[in-house]
Amino acid sequence: MEINATKLAQLLDVAQKAIEVDSLEAVLATEKLDLSTAYDDHKERVGINYIAADTPEWTEMLASTKGEYAAVEEAKRNLKNARSRLKSAIRRYRA
């Protein structure tokens, strides 16, 4: 199968998008770990091993880890968008 210049450029675009997705998956994993660590740090700070959902302690923990939670949500959005761009690049290549 011979690949013309346009197809080669599209294939390179797919590769770049795939690398972006891979990088953003690593970012999400790191952000999730940071959030988990922030939860653990909060529990240690207040001297509690377990915090049940929908309790005042839970609300307090969420408030104290708002930044880390926002970073996870942003990483999820960025990854979702990158996956969408990758799928679009693949469709363009296959067209």
Main attributes of the structure:
coiled coil; rod-shaped; 3 helices; mainly alpha; 95 residues
Largest sheet, if any?
none
The backbone outline, from C-alpha atoms, is rod-shaped
Q: Please state the average pLDDT score.
A: 96
Main structural class = mainly alpha
Helix residue percentage: over 70%
Stretches with pLDDT under 50, minimum 5 residues: none
- H/E element order: HHH
Number of separate domains = 1
Number of H- or I-type helical stretches: 3
Distance between the termini: 16 Å
Radius of gyration, CA atoms, in whole angstroms: 20 Å
**Overall number of strands:** 0
Q: How much of the polypeptide forms β-strand, as a percent range? A: under 5%
Coiled coil: 62-92
Keywords: Coiled coil
How would you sum up this structure, described in words?
Residues 62-92 form a coiled coil. Keywords: Coiled coil. With 95 residues, this protein is mainly alpha-helical. It has one domain. The protein is built from three helices and no strands. It starts with a helix and ends with a helix. The mean pLDDT is 96.
